[in-house]
Design goal:
Rossmann fold, 230 residues, 20% strand, five-stranded parallel beta sheet, 37% helix, alpha/beta, Beta-Lactamase, three-stranded antiparallel beta sheet
Length: 230
């Protein structure tokens, strides 16, 4: 079943998503809200006739009409004020995302290596964004999927510092059983990931890692090369 998306605020950033998301068969834009219909249509015309036609068919300027007879799975909040307008009784599982996050989650499909520069730029923008907490689990999974895809890796993981600021914990991974994630902890400065987190510099391994050089708890004989970035 396709995920039904609404767009709250028809600025240029959100309107540019229309063509990108239209190529994803797993999602569909079902409604767009903007309080100034004429200005929104003018912005859409500036992006091309196809986008202008799509916007014209989906655009409403009444918040009540935006919600009428629509069951959204997610709303792309361009203005940052959607929560103030959401009616009581809105779906508790309704996902509210920024245009940047929507682009990363649904706009790129399979992480093809021939789109490496574009995808890595999107990852960089998300990492630099202050808004990483809205849908963290899905976002982290997508970030890892893209990183693995564009590097051609067989597996990978994303680790975050614990609340004590001294321990890395595995948040998502590919190639590691999910039930093992909570058990994997790395002290800051220990091993490859611990050193990268402590020093803030990437490490690119070509060949097996030396156990003594990186203070490894155990040697991974199955890893021939690896890239670890902060």
């Amino acid at each position: 079943m396709r995920r039904r998306l609404g767009i709250w605020g028809a600025n240029e950033e959100s309107l540019r998503l229309l063509r990108l998301l239209a190529a994803n068969p797993e999602v569909e834009i079902v409604r767009i809200y903007d309080p100034d219909r004429a200005a929104a249509l003018e912005r859409a015309r500036g992006l091309g006739p196809e986008i202008a036609q799509d916007v014209s068919n989906l655009l409403v300027d009444d918040p009540l009409e935006f919600f009428a007879e629509c069951e959204f799975d997610a709303v792309i909040d361009s203005d940052g004020d959607f929560s103030r307008h959401a009616p009581p009784g809105s779906r508790p599982a309704l996902q509210i995302v920024t245009p940047l996050t929507a682009r990363l989650l649904w706009g790129y499909g399979v992480a093809a290596r021939d789109r490496k520069a574009e995808l890595l730029q999107a990852l960089h923008e998300v990492v630099e964004s202050v808004d990483l907490t809205i849908e963290a689990d899905e976002l982290f999974e997508r970030m890892l999927e893209i990183a693995v895809g564009v590097t051609g890796a067989e597996g990978g993981s994303l680790m975050l510092l614990d609340s004590d600021g001294q321990t890395l914990r595995m948040r998502v991974a590919k190639g590691v059983e999910p039930e093992l994630w909570p058990k994997i902890r790395v002290a800051l400065g220990q091993g490859i990931s611990g050193r990268v987190a402590a020093e803030g510099r990437p490490i690119h391994l070509r060949g097996r890692a030396d156990r003594r050089s990186y203070d490894l708890i155990r040697e991974r004989v199955d890893v021939e090369s690896a890239l670890c970035v902060p």
